[in-house]
Structure formats: structure tokens, C-alpha cells
Amino acid sequence: MRGLPEGGNRCRPRGALSSRTAVLDREAPGSPPAGIATSLRLVALVPSHNEESQIAATIESLLAQTRRPDEIIVVCDNCTDRTVEIALGYPVRVMETVGNTSKKAGALNQALDDLLPRLAPADAVLVMDADSVLEAAFLETALQRLARGDVCAVGGTFTGQPGGGLVGMFQRNEYARYARDVGRLKGKVLVLTGTATVFSVAVLTEVARARENGRLPGDSKQVYDVRVLTEDNELTLALLHLGHRIISPMGCRLTTEVMPTWQALAQQRLRWKRGALENLTDYGWTAITRRYWGRQLLSFLGVVVTLAYLSTVAWSFAVDGGLKLHPIWAVVTGIFILERVITVRSRGPAQMALAAVLVVEMAFDIVLQAVQARAFLDSAFRRERRW
């Protein structure tokens, strides 16, 4: 286990003396109506690494909220492009990390080390990726849920931004199905999304203390475990093990970047899957992790079934010269096609028609299954972890 590198607890502020640097005025347009969590302070953290093409849209979506943040902090981590310059053109505070080698988790820890001591336990922190755009009511909805006191964190429900060609389209369909599932479950989720989640200050402070005294994995006094590949998944497990509840209400909507190439998609999903497996290994078998281990077992069985199916198809063509479909499998296939069509209804008739042609989306599913198989093998043989 390891903590932050030397010097990793410091942040260097940029623009602190500029008139553009802002603690946003609560009485400005876009402030919340009376009675909607107006007594608490809300700070938005936007960790960014070379996000010059996205950062403006992200900041503008925060400024357009029906309940604007009281402060927006863009946390620039080892940026070599124009991210800092563009951010300073808006009423935000820019902080550049110092000596950080722990990527997003390390950058957020540096910002939170500076931020949490000056906030009250009832205040809130939004952690939001710099490639995401919030819908206008996101923060108002999240604060309303936090103000009820029955949850400690409120995550977003995301859909995909335009672009990415065919692979981008597949991801947008996938995200639409995910959003539908969250809606049907009334916001119950297994993981708080890293794209945008609002946390109470009290619970973030509790996590840091729990790591310090050994109640949670991680050997530092900080909120995010810098050892892991999927810091958002690990933080979700931490909150649940501390006895807290989480939710992603449908009013907390956003759009996020899709991976533009098959290679980028495979790298992203390999990190997600490998990280999830290793998070569970860190926490072991507990009352909380049982259902997560169960989902991993189902995922593994899915890989096995997919391999068996493809092998059967290949054998049928090689030996019989064609595909022979048994009536029972024809029925199963029909049910599966119907499910695919219905679950993508929010994307419109064209995507429903495409989903009906099962073989098109099957290519995407096979790629994801192959990535999952790689993640299982890498974890089993303890191969080097890569971001």
C-alpha cells in the first residue's frame, strides 16, 4: 500500500488574485428558490488533464444550473495544453496539482485536502469529470435529495455525447439502456458514477478518517485510494461499508464523452473491469460485496456462454456448411431481440430498427465480452495494472 508521493498534499492555486476567480454569488441569476437547501455551501471540483476541447462546455453547464455552485474549482493535473488558459476565462478558481503521480485520485486528494477543512459537515462537494455536461436541474435535484438526510451521495444518470462513429453509437445505446434500468429501479445503483456525483462533506471526512484508522482499505488519511484503477467504484464500496446509502435520481442527468475508437473503448473497459475485480479483492467477502461478487460470477458465466455459442456457430459452418437453428433457440433469440429493441426505445425508431438486426450490435457485445475475459485473466495471473 502507498500514499501520495512527496509533496502530494499541496495544490498551487491559479488566478487567486484575478477578478475572474469566483466564489459565486448566491443572489446571482440561477440561485435556488427559497427553501431548497439554501443554507448549505456547494463546491464543484472538476479534475482535468488536457481537456482543452471539453472544459468550456463543462464549466458553462455548471454556470447554467438552476442551483449554481457557490464555488467552482478546476483541478488541473499535469496539463500541457490550454486547459488552464481556457478555465481562467470563466469565473472559477484554477488549482494545479504539485508532484502528483496518482492521476485523478491523487489530484482530487490534493484539492480535498485544501477544501474540506474550510467547509461545514452539512455542506456538499460535486466531483465532476471535465468531459461531462450537466443538465440544468442536476444540482438542484441532488441537493434536494441530500437535504432529506437519507442518502450521503447523489450520482448522475449519464447518456453519451455525439461523435465516435459506429463505436460511439453503440456506446450511446448502451448508456440509454443503463439510464432506463436506473429509472426502473427508482435511482438505485451499484456504483456512483465518476462523471458527476454530489457528496456531503461529512461523509467524505468520515471516509478519510476510516482509512486512517484501518476501517477501510488504503493507508492514507485521504478520501480517494490512490492504489486503485477505479477510484469511483472503490469510494462507492467505502461508503456502503460505512453504512451509508447512495442514489442516482433521474433528475440528475448529464451527457459524457464516448470513446472515439475501438482501441480506446477496450482500454477503458479493461480498466473498469480490472479495477472492479481488484476493489472487491481488497474488501473481501462481506455482506456488502456479496451481490457484487455475484454480478462478477454472472459476468464470467456470460463470457463462457458467449465463447461456447461462437464455438458452436463456427463448428456448424465448418462441419455442416451452414447454421442450423433449433426451434427452442429460435424462440430464445426472438425474446432477446425484443428486449434489445424495447430497451433502446429512448434513442428513437432508427436505433430500434438497428437493434432488431441482432448481428449488428452483437459485434459490440463480443468486443466487451473479450475485454472482460482479458480482465479476468489479468487478475487471475496478477499481471501489471495499467491506467
Provide structural commentary.
The protein is of the alpha/beta class. The chain is 47% helix and 12% strand. It folds into two domains: 11-260, Spore Coat Polysaccharide Biosynthesis Protein SpsA, Chain A (Alpha-Beta Complex), CATH 3.90.550.10; 290-380, no CATH class. It has twelve helices and eleven strands.
Quick synopsis:
By secondary structure, the chain is α/β, with parallel strands linked by helices.
Please list the strands of the largest sheet in the order they lie side by side.
1-4-3-2-5-9-7-10
Question: Structural class, from secondary structure content?
Answer: alpha/beta
Number of domains: 2
- Strand fraction equals 5-15%
Provide the helix percentage.
40-55%
- CATH superfamily name of the largest domain? Spore Coat Polysaccharide Biosynthesis Protein SpsA, Chain A
- State the major sheet: 8 strands, mixed
Helix and strand layout, with pairings?
Blueprint: E1 11-14, E2 42-48, H1 55-63, E3 71-76, H2 83-87, E4 93-97, H3 103-115, E5 124-128, E6 132-134, H4 138-147, E7 153-155, E8 157-160, H5 165-184, E9 196-200, H6 201-212, H7 231-241, E10 246-247, E11 253-256, H8 262-283, H9 290-320, H10 327-343, H11 349-356, H12 358-380
Parallel strand pairs: 2-3, 2-5, 3-4, 7-10, 8-11
Antiparallel strand pairs: 1-4, 5-9, 6-11, 7-9
Helix pairs in contact: 7-8, 8-12, 9-12, 10-11
Which characteristics define this entry?
three-stranded mixed beta sheet; eight-stranded mixed beta sheet; disordered N terminus; 11 strands; Spore Coat Polysaccharide Biosynthesis Protein SpsA, Chain A; alpha/beta
